[in-house]
Structures are given as structure tokens and as C-alpha cells.
Amino acid sequence: MSILSEDSSVISKTKDLCAQIVAEPRFKELQGRVERFLDDDAARLQYQSVHERGEELHHKQHAGVELGAAEIREFEAARDALFKNEIARGFLEAQRELESIQQTIGKYIGMTLELGRVPEAEDFAEAEDGCCGGNGGCGCH
User: SUPFAM superfamilies of this UniProt entry (predicted)?
Assistant: First the structure.
């Protein structure tokens, strides 16, 4: 039987983990923030506008075009207004926390596959302090 077959113990435990995540009150709260944002057309449009404008400015800057002070101020004002929008801010915070959960679980699984055992806190510390002092300069993190 494959380690990834639907009836394997690994998939069973993975489903248990997923069920535990979904049952967590904090997850339900984060999910509620995302749903609230998705249901609010004004917040979504505001977010989309700021995101698109930020990408546009990034591309201009990356292409060597010097950004004008006025367009920078306009973007910063729009971004500040977005962060003042409780629904959009809640969405951004929820999105950040959900991504952190996903990254942390991914680190545990990756380290398990690398070490061949369940990682300890020291393993993560050693990995961060490894070949490049934890700064990611060598591409190992």
C-alpha cells in the first residue's frame, strides 16, 4: 500500500490534523474575517485598488522609472485608508495568520522528511543558524 493511498495511516492522520485545525476556535474566527471581507464589495474593491496600484508602482520602479512624490503620497493615503477599514484590516490580519499556520505545518513536515523523525525545537533553531547564519543568503531557508 502506498504511503499516500486514501486508506493509509498517513492520510488518516493528515485528515485528523485538518479536522483539528477546522475545530480550533481561532481558525473559525480567522475564517469568519475572510468571509466577512469576501461579502463586503466595498472592502474588496478598496483592497483590489490598493493592491493593483502597489503592483503598478512596483513595476514602474523595477523598470527604472523614478516614482513621483505625488503618486507615492496618493498610494500611501490609499493604503492608510485601507488599513483603517476594519473589515479589510481584519482580512489582512487573518490572511497573514493563516499563511503562518500553513508555513509552520509545512516546516514540521519538511523537517520530518529531512530528518526521518519528528523535529524538536532545537532542530528548527539549528536549521535557522545553519550554513548562512539564518539569514537565508545561501538559499537554504
Answer: YheA/YmcA-like (SSF158622)
Number of Cβ atoms within 10 Å of the Cβ of 92: 16
| Separation between Cα atoms, residue 1 and residue 8, nearest integer Å | 7
Q: Collapse the DSSP code of 40 into the 3-class scheme (helix H, G, I; strand E, B; otherwise coil) and give the result.
A: coil
Cell of 47: 483592497
pLDDT values of the chain reduced to their tens digit, one per residue, 141 residues: 799 999 999 999 999 999 999 999 999 999 999 999 999 999 999 999 999 999 999 999 999 999 999 999 999 999 999 999 999 999 999 999 999 999 999 999 999 999 999 999 999 888 888 655 444 445 554
Compute the Cα dihedral for 50, 54, 55, 59 and give only its sign. Answer: positive
The pTM is what? 0.79
Are the C-beta atoms of residues 36 and 91 closer than 8 Å to each other?
yes
Domain residues of the chain, as ranges? 28-129
Output the CA torsion sign for 44, 50, 53, 59: negative
Between CA 90 and CA 79 the distance in angstroms is 14
